[in-house]
C-alpha cells in the first residue's frame, strides 16, 4: 500500500499554529483542518465580546484555512463544534447558519465534561472540519 502525500496548509489569514501542528493538511482530494478558536489573526488575540463575535471569527479562520487549501466552508462535509456553555447553543447556531448554504454539512455539537469545559472556559467555543476540495463541477 502506498503512502498518501500530505501537503500542509499555511496562511496568514488564520491564526498561526503552534510548532507542533499544521493549520490544515491536504491528502488527495480531502482537506483536514485543525480546530480553530476566536483568535484574530492580525492581532493574535482572542476576539473580545459575545459568543457571536467569537463564532464569526472561528468560521472566518476555518474559511481562510480551507481557501488556502483550495476548498471553502461551502464544501464542508462534517463540522464538530465544542461549546463550553450549552446556553450559547442558539447564539452559535444563528451565526453558523449565515455561513453555510444547502446542502449543509453534517454536524456534531458537544458540551464537554468538566475538565474540557475548564480548558474552554475563556474560549467559549471551538470548531474543526474536514471536506473534499471543490472540483468545479
TrEMBL record:
Pfam families: Ribonuc_L-PSP
SUPFAM superfamilies: YjgF-like (SSF55298)
GO CC terms of this entry: cytosol; mitochondrion
UniProt xrefs under CDD domains: YjgF_YER057c_UK114_family (cd00448)
InterPro entries: RidA, RutC-like_sf, YjgF/YER057c/UK114
GO molecular function, one term: deaminase activity
PANTHER family linked: 2-IMINOBUTANOATE/2-IMINOPROPANOATE DEAMINASE RIDA, MMF1
Protein family per UniProt: Belongs to the RutC family.
UniProt name for this protein: Uncharacterized protein
Species, as recorded: Aspergillus niger
